[in-house]
Amino acid sequence: MTDELSPAERYAASRVRAAEQATALAPFREMYDFALDPFQIEACQALEAGKGVLVAAPTGSGKTIVGEFAVHLALTQGRKCFYTTPIKALSNQKYADLVKRYGADKVGLLTGDNSINSEAPVVVMTTEVLRNMLYAGSQSLLGLGYVVMDEVHYLSDRFRGAVWEEVIIHLPESVTLVSLSATVSNAEEFGDWLDTVRGDTEVIVSEHRPVPLWQHVLAGRRMYDLFEEKNGQDGDQSGRREVNPDLVRLARMENSRPALGRDKRRGRNNMREADRERERRQRSRIWTPGRPEVIDRLDAEGLLPAITFIFSRAGCEAAVQQCLYAGLRLNDDAARAEVRAIAEERTAGIPDEDLHVLGYFEWLEGLERGIAAHHAGMLPTFKEVVEELFVRGLVKAVFATETLALGINMPARSVVLEKLVKWNGEQHADITPGEYTQLTGRAGRRGIDVEGHAVVLWQRAMDPAALAGLAGTRTYPLRSSFKPSYNMAVNLVSQFGRHRSRELLETSFAQFQADKAVVGISRQVQRNEEGLEGYRASMTCHLGDFEEYARLRRELKDRETELARQGVAQRRAAAAVALEKLRPGDVIHVPTGKFAGLALVLDPGLSAGRVGGHRGFEHHDGPRPLVLTAERQVKRLASIDFPVPVEPLDRMRIPKSFNPRSPQSRRDLASALRTKAGHHNVGRHRKERSPAADDAEIARLRAALRAHPCHGCSDREDHARWGERYQRLLHDTRQLERRIEGRTNTIARTFDRIYALLSELGYLRGDEVTEEGKRLARLYGELDLLASECLRDGVWEGLEPAELAACASALVYEARAADDAMPPKLPAGRAKDALGEMVRIWGRLDALEEEHRINQTEGVGQREPDLGFAWAAYRWASGHGLDEVLREIDMPAGDFVRWTKQLIDVLGQIAAAAPEGTVARSARRAVDGLLRGVVAYSSVG
C-alpha cells in the first residue's frame, strides 16, 4: 500500500529501512535462505543493543540462530566468542557447522578429547572446559566478548548442572551472555536471576512450534488422533481441543474386558456364543502393535523417518533384530550401496578382529536396510554413523533411549513412544509432561516436513485423558542443582578469599530459588497460626486445663511408640550380629520378603570395597548377604529380609566353577541345596513380651491421666479430636519454620562446612590456599578430595601404569545396575593393596563428613569408590585385546569406551596435579596405554 502513503510517510519509512540496513543484523539475515522468526529477530536486536538474552523455545525452532548471531557480532567487533555445549557430540557438530560458515582459521574446538585451533576468535567447547579456564585464569579469556550457553536447561542436571551456574557467576562482567534453553515454565524466574548476576538480560519466550505437531495413538490396525478439534460458535475456527471420543470409547471397552477374563477361569462354557464372538471381535481390533508392524505402518502412511523411544538399551537392540527377522527393508539398492560406503569409510580405522567383537556386521546389515539402534552402550563411532545416515535420510527407523532427546540435532518426521513409564534408577515411574515434551519435540523437520507426528502405542489400561494431559501441559520448570564442592571451594578461596566466596555462592540460582520459596512458606505459617487460635478455643474444657491433659495423652503415646521402636531396633541389631557371623556355604532360612525360604550364602556382604557402593553401608544397613535361593535366583538381601536373627541350618561346599551369571550353574547348585537341606523344618519365631507392659513411666502417665479433672468430661473425646488437630497443625507449622530457617543461606552454610573440613585437613588456612589445596584445585570430579588425599598419602607411589589405571578407575566408575553380583575381580599385588587403602581413606573422609554434617544425599561429599571397572582398566592398559577384556567384564563396547575416556581424563588431572615423580610419569604412561584401538578411534566420548 506504499502508493497511498504521503511523501512524509514514505520518507519516514525509508529512514527506518536505512537504519535497519546499518545494523549488524541486516548482513547476518542475508546469510540465510529463509526469513528469521520474530523471536529470533527480537533476541538478535537485544544482543546488538548490548543486552544479554535468555531464549526459551521448543526443540527445532531455531534457537541456535541467536547463538550464531553472537558469533557474527564477535567477529564483526574483533572480539572473541566461546560457544559452549553440554556434550562433546554437540560440540563436534557445532564446530563443523561454524567451520563450514566461517572457515577453519576462525573457529576452534576444545573438548576433553580434542584441541583444535584453541586461540581462534570463535571456540566451541564443553561447559566444563570453560569452567576450568575461569578457575585457572586462562589467558584465552582476554578479549572475550560473548559466551553462548547452548542447552542451558542442563543446569537442572543432578550431576553436572552446577557447572553452568559456576560459569554464569564467574564470567567477567564485560562478557555478554547468550542463554539458549528448551521451553521451560519458569523462564521469567531464571531471567530475573540472570538480570541480578549478569546485568540487563532480555527474556524471549516462544511457545510456537515452526512445524505443527499432531498427536496420535496407534491401537491395533488403526491410528487414532489424540485430540478432536472443536470449532467455536458461528464457525469460529479458534476452537478448543478435546480428547478424541473414539479413543475414550476404546479405553472404556478395553477396561471392561477383565470381566470376560474372569469368565474364562470359571470355564468358557458359562459364556454365551454371542459373548465369545464379541470378545473375539474386540481382541481383533485392540492390541499393541509389534515393532516391525509399527515401522511398516508408518512407512505405508509416509511418516518415516521415525525415532522410536524405548527406555532400555537391550530393548533398542532387540527392536532392530525383530525388524530384521521380519524382513523389513526401507532402502533401495542405491541407498544400500551408499550406506555401506559411508559406514566402511567411517570405520576403516577399526582393526578387523575388533569388528567381530563390536557386532559390526549385524549393525551394518541393519543400516543397509535403513534400521538402527542409538544408545549410550554403543561404540561412539557407530552412533556417529547412525546420526549422519539418519540426517541424510539413509536410515529411516531409529530405536533410541531417551538420552537422544537431550543430545545432538537429529530431527525426524515422527516420534514413537512405546510406553509412558520408565525406570528412573529406583522404580518404574510415569514420564513427566516435561519429558514427554522433550521426547516428542524431535518430531517435525523444519524446512522439510509440513507437520510432525507423535505416536503413542496403545497399552492396556491406558487413560486417554491422562495422555492428553501429558501432551497438553508445558510444565518443565528449571530447578537448580547447584551445590558447592571441595574443588570449587579451594578455587573460589584462591581467587576471592573466604568472605567474598561466600557472597558469590549466595548469588547462585539455587539460593535465588530458595529465597523466593521462603516468601510463600512465610505466608503459610501466618495462616497456620490463625488456625491454631481457632483450634485452641475449640478444645477448651470447663473442668480443667485440656491442653495439659492432651500433653499427657501425647506423652503416653510417644512413650509407647518409643518402646516399640526400641524393640524393633534391638531385634534388628540381634539380626545384624547374626548376619555378621554368616560364612560362604552356610544354608539359612530367609524368614520374610520376596525371597523367603531356603537359601545358600555365596558372599556374606561384609566387604567395604564393593561394586556400586553407597555411604553408610556397613554402619547403617548392616551386612547384605548374596544368596542363591532354592528357586535358582541369585540376590543380595538386605536387613529388612531378616526381622529376627538367622542361624545356619547346615553347610554346603560351593564349587569353584560356580558362576552366578550361568543359569545352568544356578540350577545345579539350587538342586543340591534342596537335596541337602530340604528336610529342615523351621518353626515360627515366638513373639516376645512387650516392654510397655513393665514400663514404670507408662504406668505413671496412665495414672496421671485417670486423675486429671478433664478425664471425667463427657465431651472429652470431642475436645481430644480438636487437640489432635491442634497438635498436627502445630507440628506442621514448626516444620515450615524449620524449612524457612533451613532455606536461608543454605548454600553459604554448606560452603562453611566444606571450608571447615578443608581447613582441618590443611587445604585452607584463612584466606590462603596451601600447597595441598593448590593440588586439589587441579582435580575435578565427584571424588576430588579422595584423589588429593591419595596423592598426599603416597598411595599410588611405585605403581606401574596399568596398576595406577586400575586404582584411578575407582574415582570415575559407577555401576549402572544394583549390587546383585559377586565382589569385583581385582588385579593382585600392589594394585589390590592400593585399592584397599583408597577405600580406607574414603572411610576416614566419610566419618569426617559426618562430623561436619556434610550430607552426600544432598549431592555434597564423597561417594564410596566403585572398584567394578578396575580389572577392565588394568587389562586394557596392560595391552590385552578388546575381545578378551569385554568378555571378562560383560560390558557393552560403548560403555567401555566411555568409562575409559573418563579414566584417561582423570589420569591427565593426576599427572598435572602430582609433583613430578613416579606417579606423574605412571599417569602419563597409563594414558598412552589406554588411548589405543577402539578408544583412540572413537572421536566422541
Word description of this protein:
About 4% of the residues have low confidence. The protein has 941 residues and is an alpha/beta fold. β9 and β10 form a beta hairpin. It is 50% helix and 12% strand. The protein has an 8-stranded mixed sheet, sandwiched between helices. Strands 10-9-19-16-13-15-14 form a 7-stranded mixed sheet, with helices on both faces. Strands 23-22-21-20-24 form a 5-stranded antiparallel sheet, covered by helices on one side.
List the helices and strands and how they pair.
Layout: H1 7-21, H2 25-29, H3 38-48, E1 52-56, H4 64-77, E2 80-85, H5 88-102, E3 107-110, E4 115-116, E5 122-126, H6 127-136, E6 144-149, H7 162-170, E7 176-181, H8 187-198, E8 201-205, E9 213-219, E10 222-225, E11 227-230, E12 240-243, H9 245-255, H10 258-266, H11 273-285, H12 291-300, E13 306-309, H13 313-325, H14 333-346, H15 352-357, H16 360-368, E14 371-374, H17 380-392, E15 397-400, E16 414-417, E17 421-423, E18 428-430, H18 433-440, E19 452-457, H19 464-472, H20 486-505, H21 509-538, H22 546-580, E20 586-590, E21 597-603, H23 617-621, E22 626-629, E23 634-636, E24 650-651, H24 663-677, H25 696-707, H26 716-743, H27 746-760, E25 764-765, E26 768-769, H28 771-776, H29 784-793, H30 801-812, H31 830-851, H32 870-877, H33 882-889, H34 893-913, H35 918-930, H36 933-936
Parallel strand pairs: 1-7, 1-8, 2-5, 2-6, 3-5, 6-7, 9-19, 13-15, 13-16, 14-15, 16-19
Antiparallel strand pairs: 3-4, 9-10, 11-12, 17-18, 20-21, 20-24, 21-22, 22-23, 25-26
Helix pairs in contact: 3-4, 6-7, 14-17, 18-19, 20-27, 21-26, 22-25, 30-31, 30-32, 30-34, 30-35, 32-33, 34-35
